[in-house]
Amino acid sequence: MKFTAEQIAGILEGEVVGNPNAEVFKLSKIEEGSEGSLTFLANPKYNNYIYSTKATVTIVNNSFVADQQITTTLIRVEDAYQAFSKLLEYYNQVKLMKSGIEQPSVISENVTYGENLYLGSFCYIGKNVVIGENVKIYPNSFIGDNVTIGDNCVFFAGARVYSETVIGDNCTIHSGTIIGSDGFGFAPQEDGSYKKVPQIGNVILEDNVEVGACTTIDRATLGSTVIRKGVKLDNQIQIAHNVEIGENTVIAAQTGIAGSTKIGKNCVIGGQVGFAGHLTIGDNVKIQAQSGISKNLKDNDVVQGSPAFGYTDFAKSFIHFKNLPKIVTEVEQLKKKNNNI
């Protein structure tokens, strides 16, 4: 797909300096620009690259002043970084602009869906599913019985959504994600075996949630596992049954959250964090990567370590952790000296 400098300037409300008919069909970094590519210059540290870049079109700030000859066509805008971000969003929308129902695919009885549905090949839609408008479900995806999906949602290839799940508007579910699988519930028996406890709840994703690839969100034993609006989940996260995650919380990859833990809103959680079950985590909490959370945390806590404790205390203690062999040697020497007195 090709765009001219004039077309791009129209989208960005910018001004073309150079050839308005210059065509681009790909994006690049300014230092890696090649013929047919579009790039941008926002950081003054990269100014020297604009004189050597082979990019066909470059977005620059209105304040940019060239002191050498430039071969690339410029598009002048108020803020080059924001303009390029807007263009990336537009490009992504165009790239994902698909509609229609491909075959083979299965749509079961009593399914309703809104306008502009895209259903890729080899998808399965279960009974009594309700799908909103402008929803895109890419190939090899599964939507179970009685699922409700809001408007403007995207399910990338191979997404799995189990029965009874409720998904709000503007949600994105990446490939390999499983929503609504059974919670890990087993009752120990007298003979040492385990009997599975039926998991009859569901999962609720509110509006504007994004779930990364290969993340698993388990259905509740009873009631709902709830992911509140605006939550962003990275790849390969495990969320157990009856967990609740508050609004606009972000969680990095490989984090595991055990059953019935409640996490507040606006929290920032690093990668590979482990949560014990039945905890309450306050609002605006920050948890550093690889921390182990075994107790409740108050609003605005910042913690690190396993088990985690205050971040400032951890940073101070880490100095002593590194010097522990030296400290032990010094203590032993002091003990010997004391014994000789």
Automatic annotation (TrEMBL):
Task: Enumerate the spans annotated as UDP-3-O-[3-hydroxymyristoyl] glucosamine N-acyltransferase non-repeat region domain.
Answer: 22-89
Q: Which InterPro entries match?
A: Hexapep, LpxD, Trimer_LpxA-like_sf, UDP_GlcNAc_AcTrfase_non-rep
Q: Which Pfam families match?
A: Hexapep, LpxD
Domain of life according to the entry: Bacteria
Which UniProt keywords are given for this protein, alphabetically ordered? Answer: Acyltransferase, Lipid A biosynthesis, Lipid biosynthesis, Lipid metabolism, Repeat, Transferase
Q: Which residues form the active site?
A: 241
Which pathway is this protein engaged in? Bacterial outer membrane biogenesis; LPS lipid A biosynthesis
Q: CDD domains from the entry?
A: LbH_LpxD
Q: What is its EC number?
A: 2.3.1.191
Its recorded reaction(s) are:
a UDP-3-O-[(3R)-3-hydroxyacyl]-alpha-D-glucosamine + a (3R)-hydroxyacyl-[ACP] = a UDP-2-N,3-O-bis[(3R)-3-hydroxyacyl]-alpha-D-glucosamine + holo-[ACP] + H(+)
MF-aspect GO terms: UDP-3-O-[(3R)-3-hydroxyacyl]-glucosamine N-acyltransferase activity
Query: What's the stated role of this polypeptide?
Result: Catalyzes the N-acylation of UDP-3-O-acylglucosamine using 3-hydroxyacyl-ACP as the acyl donor. Is involved in the biosynthesis of lipid A, a phosphorylated glycolipid that anchors the lipopolysaccharide to the outer membrane of the cell.
Q: How does it assemble?
A: Homotrimer.
| NCBIfam families cross-referenced by the UniProt entry | lipid_A_lpxD, PRK00892.1
Family of the protein in this entry: Belongs to the transferase hexapeptide repeat family. LpxD subfamily.
Name used for this protein in its record? UDP-3-O-acylglucosamine N-acyltransferase
This chain's source organism reads Flavobacterium chuncheonense
Gene symbol of the encoding locus: lpxD
